[in-house]
Automatic annotation (TrEMBL):
<feature type="domain" description="Small ribosomal subunit protein mS35 mitochondrial conserved">
    <location>
        <begin position="86"/>
        <end position="218"/>
    </location>
</feature>
<dbReference type="Pfam" id="PF10213">
    <property type="entry name" value="MRP-S28"/>
</dbReference>
<feature type="region of interest" description="Disordered">
    <location>
        <begin position="1"/>
        <end position="46"/>
    </location>
</feature>
<dbReference type="InterPro" id="IPR039848">
    <property type="entry name" value="Ribosomal_mS35_mt"/>
</dbReference>
<feature type="compositionally biased region" description="Polar residues">
    <location>
        <begin position="1"/>
        <end position="15"/>
    </location>
</feature>
<dbReference type="InterPro" id="IPR019349">
    <property type="entry name" value="Ribosomal_mS35_mit"/>
</dbReference>
<dbReference type="GO" id="GO:0005763">
    <property type="term" value="C:mitochondrial small ribosomal subunit"/>
</dbReference>
<dbReference type="GO" id="GO:0032543">
    <property type="term" value="P:mitochondrial translation"/>
</dbReference>
<feature type="region of interest" description="Disordered">
    <location>
        <begin position="220"/>
        <end position="281"/>
    </location>
</feature>
<protein>
    <submittedName>
        <fullName>BQ5605_C005g03324 protein</fullName>
    </submittedName>
</protein>
<dbReference type="GO" id="GO:0003735">
    <property type="term" value="F:structural constituent of ribosome"/>
</dbReference>
Length: 281
């Protein structure tokens, strides 16, 4: 005969049992990793499938993004008031402009690049004479911008921006010291604006020079008169027909003949082309 009552092993009721401590504890953050484990979400449901590593990394990136959004909404107004500074215009002595570039804390090889620029008019008091200014522009070479009259140089040879900025500063000091040395003023060497024009053409701010831009005043006088002379040799015939005189035809043929001996050689280099011997019969 079986007993009618079932014996309980534990005397504690299941309704009074507390939830176990650990990762399965309650979490208020819906994006918390503990709440994403199957069986531990809101209502004890959670996900029915395990999370992959790309999904976990994507959720971590989203939580970091939400963290910075909270900082922007809650702490930025207070920081703006506490660290606000009034803009001060650079003085006459601060003529060198240094440009750094960063990518909001992300490592990037271009973040170490530093660009230093200075206007040549601001260096007039430092260089002194016009010969020194002319020599300074010659020493700058293609780094001199003829449009804005400024010298710009950059460096990214070294691993840190501070080292690259130091190199640009020392190079600028050496150029100024060399320009002040007028033992060789280089006054007979003209400035070359072709690098500036090349940059303008690449940016689309300057059109490319073509044959139509060639000045007509520089054309030889014989070329200017060639077409009117040919038109005058054509005589009007009866019933609207045109006839060309024999003298006019001979004159036109004489103009079209080109002296081959006066043409430049078609060879490559300074020596010109080699003469081709005549074929023997």
């Amino acid at each position: 005969m079986q007993p009618t009552t079932r014996r309980l092993i534990s005397s504690t009721s299941t309704c009074l049992a507390r939830a176990p401590r650990g990762r399965s504890g309650a979490s208020k953050d819906p994006l918390d990793m503990a709440s994403m484990i199957p069986g531990t979400g809101s209502g004890g449901g959670g996900f029915d499938y395990p999370l992959t590593r790309p999904t976990i990394l994507k959720m971590q990136e989203k939580r970091l993004f939400l963290h910075y959004l909270r900082l922007e909404q809650l702490q930025f107004p207070d920081l703006d008031v506490a660290f606000r500074q009034k803009y001060k215009k650079p003085s006459s002595e601060q003529i060198v402009r240094v440009r750094h570039q960063h990518y909001q804390g992300e490592p990037h090889p271009a973040a170490r690049k530093v660009t230093v620029s200075v206007n040549c008019d601001d260096l007039a008091s430092t260089l002194g004479s016009e010969q020194a200014q002319h020599k300074f522009k010659l020493l700058a070479g293609p780094r001199w911008d003829a449009t804005n009259d400024e010298v710009k140089m950059s460096c990214e040879l070294f691993p840190t921006p501070e080292m690259n900025e130091r190199w640009c500063s020392e190079t600028l000091d050496k150029m100024i010291a060399e320009a002040k040395d007028l033992s060789d003023p280089m006054s007979d060497i003209p400035l070359d604006p072709r690098p500036t024009l090349s940059r303008l053409v690449k940016s689309g701010k300057h059109k490319i020079v073509t044959l139509s831009d060639f000045p007509k005043e520089w054309l030889p006088a014989s070329r200017k008169r060639s077409r009117p002379r040919r038109d005058s040799m054509i005589e009007a015939g009866p019933k609207g027909t045109t006839t060309v005189s024999a003298e006019g035809t001979q004159a036109v043929e004489a103009e079209d003949k080109v002296d081959v001996q006066n043409l430049p050689s078609a060879g490559v280099g300074k020596q010109g082309g080699a003469e081709i011997p005549a074929r023997e019969a």
